[in-house]
Amino acid sequence: MNLSIPMKKIECIHQEGKMKLQSKFEQLVHLYFGDKGASWLKRLPELIHYCEQKWPLKVQDPYALSINYVAPALLNNGNEVVVKICLPGKEFLNELEALQLLGEKSIVKLIDYDKDKGLLILQKLSPGITLAEVKDDEEACHIAAKVLRKLTIAVPVNNRLPTTQAKEDSLRTLVIENTQGVGPIYQDTLEKALQTCTYLHQTPKQQLLLHGDFHHYNILYSGEDSWAAIDPKGLIGELEFDVIQFLLNKLPNQGVYELTEKRVNIFTEELQLDKERLLLWGFCKAVLATSWTIDGDRYDQEFFQMIDIFERLYEVHFGKLIKNLDID
């Protein structure tokens, strides 16, 4: 499922001393975390009060929320920060570790945190508009490539972050549990994606610490021609993999094939990437991304179209079909 939402201010309504949360935020938390999420939502006012007492600061109205509570806040000295309240667990710990490790020139600054309660105090990027606001797609790609180049680092020793092997495991589960395909995705496409992902892991290239969810809405303008990434997931893998989520986002109504080809060429040139592996990762990720959005007869058609686009680009650029890969 695609849970990334542009950050914009909206009002948080208070009635009779009780905080009224955004309905979509509540729905997503229930969907993503189940009973644990429901319990966390009940504790949220208490956690906000805890933040205000601990640092101390005053939490303002939140941004548009996905599965975490994120809001600007004012410290007692008048400085602005961002408070991010997460459900404690593996994903929170991954983000915390990534914030501590990734290239500091291209990631939002971590000011303080509370590991037990899932709290982050972050630098407030101003004016904070997202890369999605840049109208020229080629310019946006060049900006993103520059951020990613500074952001990505060699794999630190003794890290506890997951690897892209988890994507192969997810594809294997899809194949096993959906013998007739899933939603609009045929069974042979699922099997081909699993086979491709297996091939990529059997022929590994340089492994790096990646952002893990790098796209337009997670890249913010911080002034003076400077951009920084937010919301890292923290993942170990090839740099080619980290570009894919960007390629899946902010697609036009027409000319998606041509736009994707331009994007692939820009990132390949700017970051000296392996175009073949980039397209193969794109195919695998498009299959996974589509599968996560399937709900009955509904699914994300933008993600689904990218399965075919990555296949066609691979055939055009390398003169062979993805299914003809030499995999043991």
TrEMBL record:
A single MF term (Gene Ontology): phosphotransferase activity, alcohol group as acceptor
This protein's name: Hydrogenase expression protein HypB
Provenance organism: Guptibacillus hwajinpoensis
GO BP annotations listed: secondary metabolic process
Superkingdom per UniProt: Bacteria
InterPro entries recorded: Kinase-like_dom_sf, NH2Glyco/OHUrea_AB-resist_kin
